[in-house]
């Protein structure tokens, strides 16, 4: 594991993006999402992917010069055509719009079409919560799940994240994909030739399997809770794809397996100004009373303490903010390739996990 200061990560990531032609402001806003994601400990969606995003730019899969445009606007809603820009750029524009509209009307919906992988939803919903909002974001993705009773990759494990503010503390944040487990866990088992629980995926015939080698070879992930994950996957496509006249999962190609091709995912953002909907100001008191009720509920044998959603991520974030960002070796390897590509060296050091 490596330890690198946040400012050093910003320097490397910003330099790599600016070399591709991004303005200093855009480079900083993109890098901020990726670095914060590493600080949350969601390393599969953080700076590790910047090298691949830039390769996708070079091969035409991301339009560096894209200027996202709002094609629908109303008092409490909008739709953004991201025009194949990098996901973080378009999504941050959409988040800013959602907050602005919610401050005016109390609630807002902003949809995004023709976007690219935006990383982890935690960053975006936390940004809304820090401004006194309830925030939710979701995105469709390329097919990787089977329909219950079906076979093959038909549904996307479309991620959903939400956050709401907490008085005097970090927001409550929750961020999941809709499969039983992330594809990352399947790929890791595949790499090390390990068996997996048969509740994670099905083989090419739609039969539960313990063999991860079937993934990307006719097999498919299973939705969490069976019909429940299926229903939520459809909801995400409805709010993001149907609502924006954008792509649904059946029309989406993987952002990372087909670098020259456009990803063209669709997102949906919902933002509520709590101060407008709850003008008596009791939201935070009721919230804290309820959270303490949860945290003080009976613990199972061997459990030291209970946690609220997002607590583990915020604890890592605070530690990294104070002492430097801890990144695993696979992330370090990708950052090293990124730095080499722009003739830069990274100032970091080895640490024990």
Automatic annotation (TrEMBL):
Q: What is this protein called?
A: Ldh family oxidoreductase
Give the matching Pfam families. Answer: Ldh_2 (PF02615)
Q: Which UniProt keywords apply?
A: Oxidoreductase
State if Ribonucleoprotein is listed as a keyword: no
Enumerate the PANTHER family for this protein.
MALATE DEHYDROGENASE, OXIDOREDUCTASE-RELATED
In the record, the note on similarity to other proteins reads:
Belongs to the LDH2/MDH2 oxidoreductase family.
Please give the Gene Ontology molecular function terms for this protein.
Answer: oxidoreductase activity
List the source organism: Anaerobutyricum hallii
Key word Transcription regulation present in the record? Answer: no
Query: Which Gene3D superfamilies has this protein been placed in?
Result: 1.10.1530.10, Hypothetical oxidoreductase yiak, domain 2
Determine the domain of life of the protein's source: Bacteria
The record's section on InterPro entries has: Mal/L-sulf/L-lact_DH-like_ah (IPR043144), Mal/L-sulf/L-lact_DH-like_NADP (IPR043143), Mal/L-sulfo/L-lacto_DH-like_sf (IPR036111), Malate/L-lactate_DH-like (IPR003767)
